[in-house]
């Protein structure tokens, strides 16, 4: 191989290496220029969390802890009315009542609810057309403090029944379920479930119709009123959306003292004036005599 060929080969090899080096340098310069145009990431901003409702709540509903959650919210859509995490607590709204319906995912604000102690709180709890009335209770009639706002109860009247006959001075006792499926609004002046041991209350405020309010007023004068707690399972939908108002007819149940104790059952035969049986003709020989058939109650 001649010297000329060797020189040309070395020259071509050097040119190739020079081209590669130049291309690599140019690419590195382009990458550096592009990187210089990208701004450096700043420190991460803390997300603003707003208190929202987890599920739809209708007007008059009590707000419970499980109804609320914190949710990240865009800063450009924040308003001063929203409740921001770190500035306020969700406990402030427990026991409040929804003024108008709130949809799931909507922020909760002071204007959307009425809190216990606010003016008009009880009026916001009431459903349209309903009334609030308070009744006296104790450890026995109030189920030992296990009746809370939001529960539903039946109202039982226990009273004395005088004898129907003027000569009979016996006084009977009976109990009857007068109203059913009545919502409890407040116990004493408490409108939310408080943690801890049950406390025996002195009054219970219930939600009724105007007619039922009149019935409750009469019950208080007639005898002793007791509350009967209903199941939360709502297994009595057949009674109607608002429950079977027994005082308005149909299905009334009652229990007499004679149904409870056999010792109070009548021990004497009814007189002719008390009998309600039909009259039959009894024939003895040639004589016919009318005779009433006595029926015993």
Report the end-to-end length measured between terminal Cα atoms.
Answer: 142 Å
Secondary-structure element order, N to C: HEEEEHEEEEHEEHEE
Class by helix and strand content?
alpha+beta
Amount of helix: 10-25%
Pick out the low-confidence regions: 235-244
Give the overall form: rod-shaped
Count of DSSP helices? 4
Query: What would the average pLDDT be, to the nearest integer?
Result: 77
Strand content: 25-35%
- Rg (C-alpha, Å): 41 Å
The largest sheet, given as strand count, sense and whether it forms a barrel, is: 6 strands, antiparallel
Please give the number of β-strands: 12
State the main characteristics:
rod-shaped, 6-stranded antiparallel beta sheet, alpha+beta, two-stranded antiparallel sheet, 25% strand, 4 helices, 297 residues
Description:
The structure is a single chain. By secondary structure, this protein is α+β, with helices and mostly antiparallel strands. It is 19% helix and 25% strand. The protein contains four helices and twelve strands; from the N terminus they run αββββαββββαββαββ. It has helices at residues 3-37, 121-125, 210-222, 257-260, and strands at residues 49-53, 68-72, 97-98, 113-114, 131-136, 152-162, 171-187, 203-208, 224-229, 254-256, 279-284, 287-292. The strands form four sheets. Strands 5, 6, 7, 8, 9 and 10 form a six-stranded antiparallel sheet that branches. Strands 1-2 form a two-stranded antiparallel ribbon. A hairpin with an 8-residue loop joins β6 (152-162) and β7. It is rod-shaped, with a radius of gyration of 41 Å. The N and C termini lie far apart (142 Å). The model is unreliable at 235-244 (pLDDT under 50).
């Amino acid at each position: 191989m001649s010297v000329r060929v060797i020189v040309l080969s070395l020259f071509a090899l050097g040119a190739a290496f020079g081209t590669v080096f130049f291309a690599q340098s140019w690419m590195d310069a382009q990458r550096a220029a592009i990187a210089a145009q990208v701004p450096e990431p700043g420190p991460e901003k803390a997300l603003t969390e707003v208190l929202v409702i987890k599920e739809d709540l209708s007007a008059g509903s009590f707000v419970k802890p499980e109804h609320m959650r914190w949710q990240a919210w865009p800063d450009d859509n924040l308003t001063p009315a929203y409740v921001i995490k770190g500035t306020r607590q969700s406990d402030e709204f427990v026991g409040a009542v929804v003024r108008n319906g709130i949809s799931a995912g909507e922020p909760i604000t002071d204007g959307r609810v009425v809190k216990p102690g606010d003016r008009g709180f009880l009026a916001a709890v009431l459903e349209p057309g309903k009334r609030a009335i308070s009744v006296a209770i104790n450890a026995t009639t109030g189920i030992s403090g296990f009746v809370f706002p939001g529960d539903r109860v039946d109202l039982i009247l226990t009273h004395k029944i005088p004898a129907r006959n003027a000569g009979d001075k016996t006084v009977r006792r009976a109990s009857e379920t007068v109203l059913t499926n009545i919502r409890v609004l407040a116990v004493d002046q408490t409108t939310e479930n408080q943690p801890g041991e049950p406390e025996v209350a002195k009054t219970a405020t219930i939600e009724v119709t105007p007619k039922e309010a009149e019935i409750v007023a009469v019950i208080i004068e007639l005898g002793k009123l007791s509350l009967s707690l209903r199941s939360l399972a709502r297994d009595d939908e057949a009674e109607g959306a608002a429950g079977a108002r027994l005082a308005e007819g149909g299905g009334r149940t009652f229990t007499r003292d004679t149904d409870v104790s056999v010792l109070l059952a009548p021990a004497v035969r009814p007189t002719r004036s008390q009998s309600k049986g039909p009259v039959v003709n009894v024939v003895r020989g040639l004589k016919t005599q009318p005779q009433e058939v006595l029926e015993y109650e």
